From TrEMBL, chain A:
<dbReference type="InterPro" id="IPR046373">
    <property type="entry name" value="Acyl-CoA_Oxase/DH_mid-dom_sf"/>
</dbReference>
<comment type="similarity">
    <text>Belongs to the acyl-CoA dehydrogenase family.</text>
</comment>
<dbReference type="Pfam" id="PF02770">
    <property type="entry name" value="Acyl-CoA_dh_M"/>
</dbReference>
<keyword id="KW-0274">FAD</keyword>
<keyword id="KW-0285">Flavoprotein</keyword>
<dbReference type="InterPro" id="IPR013786">
    <property type="entry name" value="AcylCoA_DH/ox_N"/>
</dbReference>
<protein>
    <recommendedName>
        <fullName>Acyl-CoA dehydrogenase</fullName>
    </recommendedName>
</protein>
<dbReference type="InterPro" id="IPR009100">
    <property type="entry name" value="AcylCoA_DH/oxidase_NM_dom_sf"/>
</dbReference>
<keyword id="KW-0560">Oxidoreductase</keyword>
TrEMBL record, chain B:
<dbReference type="InterPro" id="IPR036250">
    <property type="entry name" value="AcylCo_DH-like_C"/>
</dbReference>
<feature type="domain" description="Acyl-CoA dehydrogenase/oxidase C-terminal">
    <location>
        <begin position="237"/>
        <end position="390"/>
    </location>
</feature>
<dbReference type="InterPro" id="IPR006091">
    <property type="entry name" value="Acyl-CoA_Oxase/DH_mid-dom"/>
</dbReference>
<dbReference type="InterPro" id="IPR046373">
    <property type="entry name" value="Acyl-CoA_Oxase/DH_mid-dom_sf"/>
</dbReference>
<dbReference type="Pfam" id="PF02771">
    <property type="entry name" value="Acyl-CoA_dh_N"/>
</dbReference>
<keyword id="KW-0274">FAD</keyword>
<protein>
    <submittedName>
        <fullName>Acyl-CoA dehydrogenase</fullName>
    </submittedName>
</protein>
<keyword id="KW-0285">Flavoprotein</keyword>
<dbReference type="GO" id="GO:0005886">
    <property type="term" value="C:plasma membrane"/>
</dbReference>
């Protein structure tokens, strides 16, 4: 754990305490069993504690506390698989709006995000794999604005969001990064249906069937949304990496506790060296990923030149860690780990969803190699 | 790096910068040499000697040690500034090695005032080389089963036995040595003794390694007399001191980088040897993806080294085991990748047809196989993590 400021330590402790008391994994399980993918009361709590304003400048009602602070919260949420629109709204949505929108748009949305009254989502993916260059949903310019046509899939928190940020192709052909534009659309104007994703979060499929938007729905420059959106997505990837770090840490802690209590051959499993060494290897990997995630958040906060590189690394390495740790969690729990009664399955399912979100390991690694020019 | 110092530190930084500009010979820039801790590798020319004297006079070879014992008397923060400024210009300490990294800190913690006054100043000036008498033919990972014994003969100890894998023993002036003073107990029967390598009865034989180097030696002790004042700590405290020293050892090992041969990033080397496709990618896609994973691991390891340094208030911690194992994977993966990348050009053992860099890269890759063995093997580090950090009790 990096050396934190007093304010950061307070935030981390508060998040830890709140998650344990009000949103433990057992609460997520209850929601799942009840078929709920949303928990408005939880989100209001988060807003009351100021988490929704962490990345929002003070003049728009936030605390501008920085990405490091946000990752501390994300890590705690990841530990207990907390379901909330904090990521899509206060991390991703707020970052996109703060970095790309004009003053009028910021004034319309950021204070509402900060006070928890507005939920935002990003409709970006259209196929099996994330890549903004593949965007095919069209934005056609008309005399009085734009018309959107196409479909978006796996939109995180897409059913509950009031404001939808949608990436559209206003020029060029799918496969190229140029010609992309970002629009804000009110949720009531589009058709949405829920997707039954394995981790039971709120995911939506959205159909834009001739949706008309005014010229002022455009966020950022026409045809040139790609680079700045990618930068915002990298910040979001660091947030996801922090969430996966927390998830992996908890999967590790839960497994370790089990190994110390489960007896076979008249002794606890923790006594077996084969298992000790596997846990020691996993511990090392968690420590390495922690270093990367913490550094990545700091690089963004300090606008360091390596910010893109370490954001890629954070997502790639956290993906691999979450994948490996959840597989080991199931394996080391044996039969009980296979049952739905046990949490191991919940951790594994959430991990797989987070791994795919905004680019899996292979995709991040391809970006890394291209960035380094090899 | 964006360096923002507190006012007091920025003044110190300016002082360091101008001192280095005046004292560090540019001819030595970039020749950082971690293997120098084991044996003198370079002909120590005039520039080297002048630089070493300048650093010794300042006490900056061991910047945080007390001034009265020849150290620099700097705070940790000041020492970091010194290291940063030296790195900026490719300067490195000509005073560094096992004595400075491992033995010195341990003696400062456990030694008597007299022992410190006698042994620390020459170490601070880099005048005396020390070697580590730990492993024995029958005591490797199970170090505490060591059998070299020291008998109490009234006014001295009489030492008999054999050490092996003793780094730098061929060039060492002194040896810090673990000896058995009580055969009825295992760990509690071990003592920590300082032995003058010029003592009658000591024989050193170099060991030739697969790399063709012989950085290690075997040391034979036959009726070696050691004055009683050379015992560090109490008779039963040897193991405690030994473990502390090993933590210092591992924290140094864990941060180690490759220092010889091909020093460029692996992707740059691969583009040269393997070639590129029409879009500029390394032509071998499987290799390319393994290079990516290695580069990420390398960076993550380095970030962890920095994080541990920032977090640890003082002295080494159990995180050193994590660093050592992550460092072994990093170094050994890098070496094997380089050999694979260089292909047949990487197979040269000697002679013409190979560049100096290619020859050195092979040797250093073989040398680095030791990284997961010395200072406690990869498996021993995992035992330590499981036991001391994870609380998984002793294995059966």
């Amino acid at each position: 754990m990096a050396v934190l400021s007093a304010e950061q330590t307070m935030l981390k402790d508060a998040a830890d305490g709140w998650v344990r008391e009000y949103a433990p994994v057992s609460a997520f399980r209850k929601m799942r069993d009840a078929g709920q993918a949303q928990n408005p009361a939880c989100y209001q709590d988060m807003a009351d504690m100021g988490w929704t304003g962490i990345l929002i400048p003070e003049e728009y009602g936030g605390s501008d506390f920085g990405l490091t602070a946000m990752t501390l919260v994300m890590e705690e949420l990841g530990r207990q698989l907390v379901v909330s629109p904090l990521f899509s709204t206060a991390l991703l949505g707020a970052t996109i709006i703060a970095n790309m929108a004009d003053a009028r748009q910021k004034m319309a949305w950021l204070p509402a995000i900060a006070d928890g009254s507005l939920r935002v989502c990003l409709a970006v993916d259209e196929g099996a794999h994330h890549d903004i260059r593949h965007t095919a949903l069209t934005a056609t310019q008309t005399d009085d604005g734009f018309v959107l046509n196409g479909t978006k899939t796996h939109v995180v928190d897409g059913m509950q969001a009031e404001l939808i940020l949608v990436l559209a192709r206003s020029d060029g052909t799918p496969g190229t990064a140029d010609g992309l534009s970002l629009f804000a659309v009110q949720g009531k104007h589009i058709q949405r249906k829920p997707l039954g994703v394995l981790d039971r979060r709120d995911y939506a499929e959205m159909t834009f069937d001739g949706v008309k938007v005014a010229p002022d729905a455009l966020i950022g420059p026409l045809n040139q949304a790609g680079p700045r959106l990618e930068q915002a997505l990298d910040i979001a990837r660091i947030g996801l990496a922090a969430e996966m770090l927390g998830l992996s840490q908890q999967a590790f802690d839960t497994t370790l506790e089990y190994l110390k209590s489960r007896k076979q051959f008249d002794t606890v499993l923790a006594q077996f060296q084969a298992i000790q060494h596997r846990m020691a290897d996993l511990f090392c990997q968690i420590e390495l990923v922690r270093s990367v995630v913490e550094h990545a958040a700091r690089s963004v906060d300090g606008d360091a030149p390596d910010r893109t590189e370490v954001a890629i690394m954070a997502k790639s390495m956290a993906n691999d860690l979450a994948n490996l740790m959840t597989r080991q969690m199931v394996q080391l729990h044996g039969g009980i780990g296979m049952t739905d009664l046990h949490d191991a399955g919940l951790y594994l399912k959430r991990a797989r969803a987070l791994e795919a979100l905004f680019g899996n390991t292979a995709w991040q690694n391809e970006r890394f190699a291209n960035l380094h020019g090899y | 790096m964006n360096i923002q110092d507190a006012p007091a530190l920025s003044g110190f930084r300016a002082t360091v910068r101008s001192w280095l500009a005046y004292n560090f010979p540019p001819s030595l820039a970039g020749r950082s040499e971690e293997m120098a801790l084991i044996q003198p590798l370079y002909p120590e020319g005039e520039d080297w000697a002048a630089w070493k004297t300048a650093m010794a006079d300042k006490g900056w070879g061991v910047p945080t040690w007390p001034k009265e014992l020849g150290g620099g008397g700097l705070t940790k923060a000041e020492a970091r500034v010194l290291a940063e400024e030296m790195a900026q210009i490719g300067a490195y300490s000509p005073i560094g090695g096992m004595a400075q990294n491992m033995f010195g800190p341990t003696l400062l913690e456990f030694g008597t005032e007299e022992q410190k006054k006698r042994h620390i100043p020459p170490v601070a000036r880099g005048e005396i080389r020390w070697c580590q008498g730990y492993s024995e033919p029958g005591a490797g990972s199970d170090l505490a089963s060591l059998q070299t014994r020291a008998e109490d003969k009234g006014d001295h100890y009489l030492v008999n036995g054999q050490k092996i894998w003793t780094s730098g023993s061929v060039h060492a002036h002194w040896c810090f040595c673990l000896v058995r003073t009580d055969r009825s107990k295992k760990h509690e029967g071990i003592s920590f003794l300082l032995i003058d390598m010029a003592s009658p009865g000591i024989e050193v034989r170099p060991l030739l390694l697969m790399s063709g180097n012989s950085t290690f030696g075997e040391v034979f002790f036959t009726d070696v007399k050691v004055p009683k004042e050379n015992l560090v700590g109490g008779l039963t405290e040897g193991w405690t001191i030994a473990k502390r020293l090993m933590q210092h050892e591992r924290s140094g090992i864990g941060a180690r980088k490759q220092t010889h041969g091909e020093m460029r990033p692996v992707d740059v080397v691969a583009k040269e040897y393997v070639g590129r496709d029409s879009e500029g990618r390394i032509a071998d896609y499987d290799l390319r993806s393994r290079i990516t994973r290695h580069k990420m691991w390398e960076r993550a390891h380095r970030l962890t080294v920095e994080r541990v340094a920032e977090e640890s208030k003082a002295g080494p911690s159990t995180a050193t085991s994590v660093l050592k194992n992550a460092g072994s994977i990093m170094l050994q993966t890098r070496g094997e990748l380089l050999l694979e990348i260089m292909g047949m050009k990487g197979l040269g053992w000697y002679g013409e047809g190979y560049s100096e860099t290619e020859l050195e890269t092979l040797r250093v890759t073989l040398q680095n196989k030791a990284h997961s063995i010395y200072g406690g093997t990869y498996e021993i580090q995992n035992n330590i993590i499981a036991k001391r950090i994870l609380g998984m009790q002793d294995h059966q």
